[in-house]
Amino acid sequence: MSVDYKSTVFLPRADNFPMRARLPQREPETLKAWDEMDLFGRLREQSKGREKFVLHDGPPYANGHLHMGHALNKILKDAINRSMQMLGYDAHYVPGWDCHGLPIEWKVEEGYRKQGQDKDSIDPVEFRRECREFADYWISQQIEEFKRFGVVGNWADPYLTMSYPVEAQIVREIGKFLQNGGMYRGDRPVLWSVAEKTALADAEVEYHEHTSRTIWVRFPVVTASHAALSDASVVIWTTTPWTIPGNRAIAYDAEETYAVIEVTEPGEGSLAQTGEKLVVGKALVEQVASDTAIDGYKVVAEFKGAELDGTLAAHPFRGQGYEFDVPLLAGGFVTMDQGTGFVHVAPGHGTDDWLLGRQHGLAMPHNVDADGYFVESVPLFAGARVYTPEGKHGDANGRVIDALKDAGKLVTQGKLRHSYPHSWRSKVPLIFRNTPQWFISMETNDLRKKALAAIEETDFYPASGKTRLYSMIENRPDWCVSRQRKWGVPLPIFVHKQTGEPLRDAQVIERIAQVFEQEGGDAWFNSDAQRFLGNAYDAQDYEQVFDVVEVWFDSGSTHAFVLEARDDLKWPASLYLEGSDQHRGWFHTSMLESAGTRGHAPYEGVLTHGFVLDPHGRKMSKSLGNVIAPQDIMAEKGADILRLWVVASDYSEDLRIGDEILRYQADAYRRMRNTLRFLIGNLDGFTESERVQPAEMPELERWVLHRLWEIDRAIMPAIRRYDLMSVYRELYRFCEIDLSAFYFDIRKDVLYCDRPDSIRRKACRTVLDALFHHLTAWLAPILAFTAEEAWWARGTGPEASVHERLFPEVADAWADQPLADKWAKVRKVRRVVTGALEREREAKRIGASLQAHPTVYINDDALLDAVADVDLALVCITSQITVEQGAGPEDAYRLEEVPGVAVKPGLAEGQKCQRCWQVLPEVDRDPKAPETCARCADAVHALGAAAE
């Protein structure tokens, strides 16, 4: 007589949620289902009337395939948006693109350069049309790539800075600064690219190693403020010899001590002369002597820098067209770190120089043209070139050094390898060049004060972002908003030819804006100026400005043409979220634009993430061969692995990624997927009739409910402060430690072998149902595809989405701290038992833990009380267990971290039940259920499977 016990065991059924995820194949199917169900539209409809949460999208450039930085940024935004949506907000996400500026214009120019054409020879409207088509193409490509990350948003109606209504609004925004007097045209040095022929913003500049020629130059004193200076020369040191023609002053530190040295012994090859007197910083005397090959000298005088006030020197090229005096001026930027303690001041070639020059009324020469050549009016050096368009040194440095040597003013020369500003687009070195540009004043209308006050009212994540943005705005110069380019929003400015004053007329600005709304900025280039000026002004009296607005003003104005313009959004935004470089970029310019026009920040909070690095902490670059493409990761592992990497990382710092890191995340993913699979498989056929109220549940189930309550209380505040890493860690530990390694491990026996109407089994399935509903919701923002797959696997199908849910409310009645404290003690005891059994397995004295009957010695009253009414054999997954009070024998197994518990292994007595595999004396006592224990025999009878 035999019974088929296999058919009476309730094995899990999860065929529709397989262990092997096959994410690269399944995720596109989920995306298709979301499109067909119009998930985004359904979320908006369901969210009507809710409080709005608006994460305003910082616009990426529309100029190429997405990289890992895009993946980090957009996935983080999506995870936060999904979280806030499930918290009960209307989290409407409108993506956008920066369409103007160098990245696109440079690409279009490349085509002309290959044909040997200069873009300046191309009709501007035709050139702009090509830029627009280029941007359009890449926007469509990037939309599909962003969707593949699992990002849900208003992809059908994104914002584009090149759309006609947006260009019109940018005109209105720049017009506000023009009309309130905050904008002016001024001469000042800006970082200039001779390759792109335009000024660059700070955010368009990157720093690379560069070799510069260095020179030490004599400036003979002609008017001395101190007797020791009367026949001496002030020595300066510079890494830009080509700026010497632009010199108009020498700066010193009024608080430092300076020395006059007399050369007694020039070294071999030195250009110093015996008996000459040189003035340098006292702290640098030895260094200067070494640098200039002076073997012998004596200090003839020392004095404070303040005593240099009133000293005048001759320009090194006096007598050759440079007949002016060079005053010595106190400058706060002078240091004694290197050089000579004096700084050569060329107001047209540096910000500090310009500020000092403006303070003292110095001349601001325009020496270098847009191509990097010295202009015709520069004595000695007209036609010399600083850099070529390819970034190579021109002849300017050499010609200046040769002329200094001929004039007897060169002390020595050398080379220096140092960090130097380069264009982030063309990679060529930049120069500081004095040009007429349009600026927004930081002081007029108290723009700086308003911006700093607005920062104080803004929340920053992490908090250090506040200090960084504050210091940048506190110390920044006026905002240069003009660019000498073609692809951008034209500056809507007319300048009166006689007065040089810009026309500040609101009606003209609005007329320009209205034209742009219909025809775009192209109209500026193909319309008669009178069209914009109307009848009130004569176009013959005005110069039309053909510069364009710098792209950072475009993106800084997005709050105006996105947040304010769309009824389904709100101003200010709830959150701006970008990389840490945007403290000098989008966060920065958005603050200035909004504070200047509205007196308030355009955002309530700012979240900053780091950069993506390779596993060794290096920046990814093609030259290093360490670039990892998100498309490749998704093709091999799936987007949910990428999403897990983002959320599992501390994104407030730089993030590393590589094969080993991704393997770790894939393993973590499998563990969480298997948790969901266990739930789905063991909930097969679950109905409401099985549901058990908490009061009727065993302690272990009530402990799980308490843990759900604890996790809810931990992760909801974390979600509200955008700390998704803490959310992930709580959920991962819960799945791995509390569920898989503890609760599931213990309850498999009950789920598989208890009779269907067992209170233990029904209570367990009730708790599994609660776990499923909570975990699928909590994981949905992180594992967007997998949570959806799990939700559909329980029978909903694509008619409803897990992302339409709100986070479930967790009843306070589930909280039971005394129970949690008790089971924390039980788990301590269990750890010692499982450790002892593992050692027995390794020694091959047992095969499975159900073969064991350990004796547990407990010499701790609190632990003993905790396990007194607990079925410890069930908890430790042994067939039998004995608990004794006392210290236990010396050879018993112990864990140092759990004092007071010792375990002596032993073998279980009896036979092995062929249904549950427990070894018990009672096995084989029921002839109609042979070879089973009492519990299993009862279940077999209840199921009608007993032998006749």
TrEMBL record:
This is Isoleucine--tRNA ligase. L-isoleucyl-5'-AMP binds at E578. IleRS has two distinct active sites: one for aminoacylation and one for editing. The misactivated valine is translocated from the active site to the editing site, which sterically excludes the correctly activated isoleucine. The single editing site contains two valyl binding pockets, one specific for each substrate (Val-AMP or Val-tRNA(Ile)). A motif ('HIGH' region) lies at residues 60-70. It is an enzyme of class 6 (ligase). The gene is ileS. Zn(2+) binds at C913, C916, C933, C936. SUPFAM superfamilies: Anticodon-binding domain of a subclass of class I aminoacyl-tRNA synthetases (SSF47323), Nucleotidylyl transferase (SSF52374), ValRS/IleRS/LeuRS editing domain (SSF50677). It is found in: Cytoplasm. Keywords: Aminoacyl-tRNA synthetase, ATP-binding, Cytoplasm, Ligase, Metal-binding, Nucleotide-binding, Protein biosynthesis, Zinc. The keyword Membrane does not apply. Signal peptide: none annotated. Residues 701-852 form the Methionyl/Valyl/Leucyl/Isoleucyl-tRNA synthetase anticodon-binding domain. It comes from Rhodovibrio salinarum. PANTHER family: ISOLEUCINE--TRNA LIGASE, MITOCHONDRIAL, SOLEUCYL-TRNA SYNTHETASE. It catalyses: tRNA(Ile) + L-isoleucine + ATP = L-isoleucyl-tRNA(Ile) + AMP + diphosphate. One of its GO terms (cellular component) is cytosol. Residues 910-938 form the Zinc finger FPG/IleRS-type domain. Belongs to the class-I aminoacyl-tRNA synthetase family. IleS type 1 subfamily. Monomer. Binds 1 zinc ion per subunit. HAMAP family: Ile_tRNA_synth_type1 (MF_02002).
